[in-house]
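Deliverable D2.4 — example input (structure tokens):
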């Protein structure tokens, strides 16, 4: 499979190593220094694009891939106010767009566990939910996309209406975002009461889990069409296993 890497930081390099190990070819590496080279790629020389860039460039990168019918998966966070535009464009062009805030299989199992716990705790009003996420200091957005997905999972299964980094109320899930090195990513959901606390935590030990998930999704994505998510991928993975 011919893979185009858009974004060539630490995550891009980790994806490259795993993709080559699985006998794929990296046809190009796009970063800030050669951003204009993206115009050299299209559906005739690229099977799938993997986009892990930065919030200020993700929208244009994805727009280009969708317009040129290159199946693309993105793990960039901090640009999601424009995600609907990419989804609409994908449907108009009959192209392929996959988005996940986190590609780790373990984190996606954690998302499901979070929803199950939120449903269980929804009748236990004495407990107040909160989220804490810890990442390395190079991460530019806060809270993390993973923390937002976790908050959305709790909101879906409870009476909470929103999340906030600052505001606190009975309808708001407070999120604490900590930046320290080295920290690939830790997320904790806490339900606290006067009597006791309940916590669940996912801790990433390296970027390898995120990179492997991205490569596996790329392999799955190359013959798909439409707007797709990790739920679609995991559903197929479960059927095939």
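Example output (designed residues):
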């Amino acid at each position: 499979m011919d893979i185009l890497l858009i974004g060539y930081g630490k995550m891009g390099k980790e994806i490259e190593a795993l993709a080559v190990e699985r006998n794929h070819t990296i046809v190009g590496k796009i970063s800030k220094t050669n951003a204009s080279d993206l115009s050299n790629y299209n559906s005739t020389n690229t099977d799938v694009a993997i986009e892990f860039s930065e919030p200020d460039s993700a929208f244009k990168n994805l727009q280009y891939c969708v317009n040129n019918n290159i199946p693309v998966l993105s793990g960039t966070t901090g640009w999601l106010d424009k995600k609907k535009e990419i989804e609409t464009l994908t449907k108009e062009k009959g192209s392929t767009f996959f988005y996940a805030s986190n590609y780790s299989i373990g984190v996606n199992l954690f998302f499901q566990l979070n929803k199950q716990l939120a449903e269980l705790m929804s009748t236990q009003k004495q407990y107040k939910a909160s989220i804490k996420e810890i990442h390395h200091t190079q991460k530019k957005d806060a809270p993390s996309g993973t923390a937002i997905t976790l908050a959305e999972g709790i909101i879906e299964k409870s009476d909470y209406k929103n999340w906030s980094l600052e505001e606190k109320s009975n309808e708001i899930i407070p999120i604490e975002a900590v930046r320290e090195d080295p920290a690939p990513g830790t997320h904790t959901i806490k339900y606290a009461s006067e009597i006791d606390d309940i916590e669940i935590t996912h801790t990433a030990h390296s970027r390898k889990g995120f990179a492997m998930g991205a490569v596996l999704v790329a392999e799955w994505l190359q013959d798909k069409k439409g707007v797709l998510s990790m739920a679609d991928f995991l559903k197929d993975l479960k059927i095939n296993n």
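The chain is about 35% helix and 25% strand.
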